[in-house]
């Protein structure tokens, strides 16, 4: 309890120093929250490089807007809000780019996104592959990527970031009821996609994974 | 409750977000319903699959990159602040340019230069006129302040050159006083001469993407702060009467949609409980009758920048909903248009004069 309030005071002090234009104080705030924010952005976008870019954008916006932070929400909720805005505008840009390139959305493969089709495939496993090592993790990642963005953001904030409903409502800037239904819809869609993994026997595991893959492959 | 209603509550149930009554109802149902139990287990399994995904850590260079950019930004802001000592020179330069823009009105009317005649045309016709009028291309358009900032950002050599240029223009203004400066300006305003004399104030080829509203602020107060040298003072005739009111700030509003621009500004003024009245004999020129102190002016101009933001079809708040580049310009407007802050520190009341100009669509 005591430690907690100490941490908060520390953070409040850092924020105060940021407001006064202390860039080193801001670096400390970034260091404290960067992994959590980055992970959320990464899970929302499903793409490591894009996530790096958007995370950088998020923190810069936070720095620019630190004077607007009123302290009426937790600092990290405020950060999430900025991150979500950055994610949304990234998606919008991506959508515009894809529309202009006449690439169908359904044929979009997130792993090939950043690569020029004529480039040789990257032989070394990227950070993404290293992160989601098992087949199962890969499937879960794909299932999340296929969710409607509204559902995906709510599920990521709840089940990956561990925010409660009120915090998510504050971060998303929408009513609690909306948060509640987005989380539930998102989870139900994930459940439908991942249900082949739920049988209790381990014997037929690879068969179940391939059943999942076939389900994935279907339009 | 029916099964499908229970299933709807299962996420909240698992997250501990249900009230006691609903919770016990779900508990009661689960105790007797196998199918809902199965739903619950699968939902739990789904959640744990998602929750057990490995946590990505931020790229090692992220904090450093962000720190560097933040530092850069602060330095840029600081150097911009340092640049404000140049403002009297900038304001004088702006005065010169506005005079140049106005100058054609005083020459015998031609379809290209008689601005008054443009007023009666539709914006399409004006646009056509503008396109067919190569002579206008040689009249430098006033650049907005954010462009001055951009110039300030773009490096020292340019800045020095600009300062020199501005200094020269200030001399022109200072030497003859306002009346004489007007004459001098008319002389400068021969076609192509302004281009050569002021390479930085080139014709604005593509207007900024900030909607159809463009604001240009010109502070006479700042111009007054430029002290003439004694010899220049000697040359100056007794011209106190001929001097235009200098305790005023002219804001030129160039817009494709005049009605909309006027409405935006009227609303902004209304928010500050101030009225705007037409100036006799000067078409499309409005004066805010109350004498404004710097604080009011800052408020109004901030309000205008907000009006500008909503003009772009975005959220009312100037800092929200705009793309980063626009946001920056917008923030600059909010802070930099009332540059008169400097003048304001003199505590002198200032009158705002709005001049409406039709601006061709490109």
Plain-language structure description:
The complex is a heterodimer of chains A (219) and B (362). Chain A has ten helices and no strands. By secondary structure, chain A is mostly helical. Chain A folds into two domains: 12-117, RNA polymerase sigma factor, region 2, helix turn helix motif (Rna Polymerase Sigma Factor, Chain: A), CATH 1.10.1740.10; 132-219, Arc Repressor Mutant, subunit A (Orthogonal Bundle), CATH 1.10.10. The longest helix of chain A has 26 residues, at 75-100. Chain A is globular, with a radius of gyration of 20 Å. Chain B has 362 residues and is of the alpha+beta class. Chain B has two domains: 3-51, no CATH class; 70-358, no CATH class. Chain B contains 17 helices and five strands. Chain B has a five-stranded mixed beta sheet with strand order 1-2-5-4-3, with helices on both faces. In chain B, a hairpin with a 6-residue loop joins strand 3 and strand 4. The longest helix of chain B has 33 residues, at 156-188. The interface between A and B is large, with 54 and 35 residues.
Tags for this model:
heterodimer, A: 219 residues, mainly alpha, Rna Polymerase Sigma Factor, Chain: A, Arc Repressor Mutant, subunit A, 2 domains, 10 helices, 0% strand, globular, B: 362 residues, alpha+beta, 5-stranded mixed sheet, elongated
In brief:
The complex is a heterodimer of chains A (219) and B (362). By secondary structure, chain A is an all-alpha fold.
Query: What is the CATH topology of the largest domain in chain A?
Result: Rna Polymerase Sigma Factor, Chain: A
Please tell me the total number of domains of chain A: 2
- Average per-residue pLDDT of chain B, rounded, comes to 55
Helix fraction of chain A, binned, reads: over 70%
Radius of gyration of chain B: 29 Å
Distance between the termini of chain A: 51 Å
Give the helix tally of chain A.
Answer: 10
The secondary structure category of chain A is mainly alpha
Q: Major sheet of chain B: order of its strands?
A: 1-2-5-4-3
Beta-strand content of chain A: under 5%
Largest sheet of chain B: 5 strands, mixed
How much strand of chain B?
5-15%
- Full CATH superfamily name of the largest domain in chain A: RNA polymerase sigma factor, region 2, helix turn helix motif
CATH class value of the largest domain in chain A = Mainly Alpha
Sequence stretches where pLDDT stays below 50 over 5 or more residues of chain B: 98-212, 218-246, 290-295, 311-349
What's the architecture of the largest domain in chain A in CATH terms?
Orthogonal Bundle
Structural domains of chain B: how many = 2
Mean pLDDT over the residues of chain A:
77
Please write the string of helix (H) and strand (E) elements of chain A.
HHHHHHHHHH
Task: Provide the structure class of chain B.
Answer: alpha+beta
């Amino acid at each position: 309890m005591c430690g907690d309030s100490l941490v908060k005071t520390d953070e409040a002090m850092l924020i105060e120093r940021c407001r006064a234009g202390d860039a080193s104080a801001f670096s400390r705030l970034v260091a404290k929250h960067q992994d959590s924010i980055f992970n959320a952005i990464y899970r929302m976008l499903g793409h490591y490089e894009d996530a790096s870019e958007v995370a950088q954008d998020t923190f810069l916006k936070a720095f620019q807007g630190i004077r607007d932070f009123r302290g009426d929400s937790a600092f990290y909720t405020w950060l999430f809000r900025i991150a979500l805005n950055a994610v949304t505008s990234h998606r919008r840009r991506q959508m515009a780019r894809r529309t202009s390139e006449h690439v169908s959305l359904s044929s979009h493969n997130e792993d090939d996104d950043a690569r020029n089709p004529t480039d040789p495939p990257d032989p070394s496993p990227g950070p993404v592959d290293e992160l989601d090592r098992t087949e199962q993790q890969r499937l879960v990642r794909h299932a999340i990527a296929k969710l409607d963005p509204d559902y995906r953001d709510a599920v990521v904030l709840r089940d990956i970031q561990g925010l409660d409903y009120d915090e998510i409502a504050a971060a998303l800037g929408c009513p609690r009821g909306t948060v509640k239904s987005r989380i539930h819809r998102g989870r139900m869609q994930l459940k439908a996609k991942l249900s082949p993994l739920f049988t209790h026997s381990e014997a037929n595991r690879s068969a179940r994974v391939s059943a999942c893959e076939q389900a994935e492959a279907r339009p | 409750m029916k099964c499908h209603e229970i299933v709807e509550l299962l996420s909240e149930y698992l997250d501990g977000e249900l009230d006691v009554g609903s919770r016990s109802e779900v508990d009661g149902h689960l105790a007797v319903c196998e199918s809902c139990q199965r739903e619950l287990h699968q939902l739990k399994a789904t959640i744990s699959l998602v929750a057990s995904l490995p946590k990505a850590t931020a790229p090692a260079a992220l904090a450093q990159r962000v720190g560097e950019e933040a530092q850069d930004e602060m330095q840029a802001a600081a150097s911009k602040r340092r640049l404000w000592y140049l403002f009297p020179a900038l304001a004088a330069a702006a005065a010169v340019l506005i005079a140049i823009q106005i100058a054609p009105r005083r020459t015998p009317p031609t379809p290209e230069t008689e601005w008054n005649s443009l007023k009666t045309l539709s914006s399409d016709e004006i646009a056509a006129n503008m396109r067919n009028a190569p002579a206008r291309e040689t009249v430098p358009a006033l650049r907005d302040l954010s462009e001055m900032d951009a110039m300030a950002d773009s490096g020292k050599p340019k800045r020095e050159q600009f300062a020199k240029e501005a200094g020269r223009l200030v001399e022109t203004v200072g030497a003859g006083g306002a009346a004489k400066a007007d004459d001098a300006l008319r002389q400068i305003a021969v076609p192509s001469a302004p281009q050569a004399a002021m390479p930085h104030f080139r014709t604005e080829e593509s207007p900024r993407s900030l909607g159809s509203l463009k604001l240009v602020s010109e502070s006479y107060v700042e111009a007054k702060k430029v002290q003439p040298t004694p010899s220049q003072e000697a040359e100056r005739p007794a011209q106190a009467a001929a001097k235009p009111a200098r305790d005023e700030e002219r804001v030129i509003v160039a817009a494709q949609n005049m009605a909309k621009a006027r409405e935006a500004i009227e609303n902004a003024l209304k928010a500050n409980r101030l009225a705007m009245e037409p100036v006799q004999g000067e078409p499309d020129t409005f004066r805010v009758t109350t004498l404004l102190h710097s604080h009011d002016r800052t408020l109004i101009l901030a309000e205008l920048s907000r009006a500008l933001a909503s003009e772009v079809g975005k959220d009312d708040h100037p800092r929200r909903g705009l793309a980063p580049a626009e946001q920056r310009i917008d923030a600059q407007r909010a802070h930099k248009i009332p540059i008169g802050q400097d003048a304001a520190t003199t505590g002198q009341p200032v009158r705002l004069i709005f001049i409406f100009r039709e601006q061709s669509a490109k």
